[in-house]
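chain below, 227 aa
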Amino acid sequence: MYAELTRFLSAGGPVIGLLACLSLGALTVILLKLWQWRRQRPWPRNIAEQALANLEYGERALAINLLQGQRNYQARLISHALQLLETGALSIEEVKDESRRLARSFVTKLDSYVRILEVVASLAPLLGLFGTVLGMIDAFQAMEAAGTQVNPSVLSGGIWKALLTTAAGLAIAIPVSMANSWFERRVEVESAAMLDGLERIFTLEAKKRAEHKVERLHAQPGSRKAG
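prediction:
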């Protein structure tokens, strides 16, 4: 197997070496991102929804306790927003700004290194085509040097060696492109979930503060009571 690999690399020339380096780099990024997303899996799976449901029933302390110690970015974001609202020191708009800043930071972390996969997916086929062009040039130069004594097997052998780089480039680009699209979709879904959770929190908080304001107005001396 090692001998076949060495023969394949030598037949493809330096372009195959570059493609091998790209594939190794892409594999490293894919494994890193899979590990990152594995760590992002909440436990239990619907912990954020449970916390939001508790919040809708007015059980903010229970919601905060559920989210404590979670590594999931959505859970951490919701917990952070709830704790800021619990202090009452900031207005809703100020808490929104801080929460959005933290959300952008989390999304940036989730999206880190994904750009490398996009570059590899677009560069690998071009490198493969470049290697094929170089191989074809060498094959036709050999044919020209042979003059009238051209051996068709020499030409066909040079052509298939040249096409190795294109095949290798496509073999790298296809799975890397699929992985890149999957990670980008995961980032989009997670970002949407974060924003949805924040909007639900702030809507409930605005409603709660409005109700408290009405209650205070009714509790003031001389206020007109219903009835």
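The longest helix spans residues 152-219. Residues 126 and 169 are 7 Å apart (CA to CA).
thats it, cya
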